[in-house]
Design a protein that fits this description.
Layout lengths: L2 H7 L25 H9 L13 H14 L3 E5 L2 H12 L5 E5 L4 H11 L5 E5 L4 H7 L5 E5 L11 H11 L3 E4 L17 E5 L13 E5 L1 H14 L5 H11 L2 H19 L5 E5 L9 H7 L7 E6 L2 H11 L4 E2 L9 E3 L11 H6 L6 E5 L5 H4 L3
Parallel strand pairs: 2-3, 2-4, 4-5, 5-6, 10-11
Antiparallel strand pairs: 1-7, 6-7, 8-9, 9-12, 11-12
């Protein structure tokens, strides 16, 4: 099946007399006939589930669906996107080792690497992934390179093909956060990535009503990560998994509208009085236009950012004037929202570091929703 059809059907094949919509299996534990029955399921000799921290029908459905869409052998669903990133990093680097991270990495991911892993002996190497020579130098002796398809909040596009070639040449696996693009717009495994993570809270769920994460990759990697999640308890509940699968069924439709609306609104705002710059990778004047056109031929999703010339005061004035659009710290829902990275996604970074990465007091991140584009022009 083509990708759109797979989004509708991935993860489940109803049999005769099954309910068309998957039921929610809201249980923490399962029952067994005898010791041999339990032992066979625990060993994997029979299908089944033991305990919700290990697995569940709804969770398994989400894992299979996202793995299918990403072209991966297996998937692991977790309690949040950060739990998926943590599981992935600790699986690739189970002992202290150098970890290379893109300079534009999500603030909470950098916080995990700096505040939780560095004190354990991990070495963090932050590098501009647009500088391939710097990336190559940083890869020497590294256990992992972590980057994002589209960065948060400035929507810079990573040349995944070039980065993965360097990783392969140095024997360093590349882990890609594909949250902003979703598997409908980009499939990093095809570019050579070793694994992919998503905050399913965002576009996969799509309705701002759940928190979840997914890691996909080869089966051996995913099962090692699963063992860690079972031990540390970062598992996903069945209801959140059910919501995420429900959202996934319309992902192909939503991502087209998100992409179209975002580009339309970015073009509308580009060059307006008080707008210093609009950060959208598919604007013709973007420094990322070439790589975005190559890696994201079907659109770049609903995210973009802008810098207001008047700084924080101008942002506050804009927020007071908004009618249709609301200020919210997350993204990827059906409603258009704005966020302020200085206070939300990147507040853990020092002000000078935010400025060095292009995040100014006037930076506003926009998560474009599914409204009529003419209404968005009058926000």
């Amino acid at each position: 099946m083509r990708l759109d059809s797979r989004a509708v059907h991935a993860g489940r094949e109803p049999r005769a007399r099954d309910p068309l919509a998957p039921p929610i299996v809201q249980t923490s534990v399962y029952v067994f006939d005898d010791l041999e029955d339990y032992d066979a399921v625990a060993d994997g000799r029979r299908p089944g589930h033991l305990y919700a921290r290990n697995s569940n029908e709804n969770v398994a459905m989400l894992e299979a669906a996202v793995a299918d869409l990403e072209g991966a052998e297996a998937g692991l669903a977790t309690a949040s996107g950060m739990a998926a990133i943590s599981a992935a990093v600790s699986t690739f680097a189970p002992r202290p080792a150098p970890v290379v991270a893109a300079a534009d990495t999500y603030g909470s991911t950098l916080g995990l690497l700096r505040q939780d892993l560095a004190p354990l002996g991990y070495e963090l190497r932050v590098v501009d992934t647009g500088d391939l020579e710097a990336v190559e130098r940083a890869l020497t002796g590294a256990a992992l390179l972590l980057c994002e398809t589209i960065t948060n909040p400035l929507c810079r596009v990573t040349d995944l093909e070039a980065i993965c070639r360097l990783g392969a040449a140095h024997g360093v696996p590349v882990l890609v956060d594909n949250t902003f693009a979703s598997p409908l717009l980009c499939r990093p495994l095809e570019a050579g990535a070793a694994a992919v993570v998503h905050s399913a809270t965002k576009y996969i769920g799509g309705h701002s009503d759940l928190v979840a994460g997914v890691l996909v990759g080869d089966r051996a990697l995913v099962e090692r990560a699963r063992a860690r999640v079972i031990r540390n308890g970062a598992c996903l509940g069945p209801f959140e998994a059910w919501l995420a699968v429900r959202g996934l069924r319309t992902l192909h439709l939503r991502m087209r509208r998100h992409s179209d609306n975002a580009l339309c609104l970015a073009r509308h705002l580009d060059g307006r009085p008080g707008v210093r710059v609009v950060h959208h990778p598919l604007l013709e004047n973007s420094p990322y236009f070439e790589v975005a056109s190559r890696l994201l031929p079907h659109g770049s999703g609903g995210m973009f950012a802008l810098d207001l010339a008047g700084g924080r005061e101008a942002v506050q004035t804009m927020l007071r004037r908004l009618r249709l659009v609301r200020f919210a710290a997350s993204l990827g829902g059906v409603e258009t929202t704005v966020s302020y990275p200085d206070l939300t996604s990147h507040r853990s970074l020092p002000p000078e570091e935010r400025l060095a990465r292009g995040i100014t007091p006037g930076t506003v991140r926009i998560s474009t929703g599914l409204e009529d584009p003419e209404d968005l022009r009058r926000i």
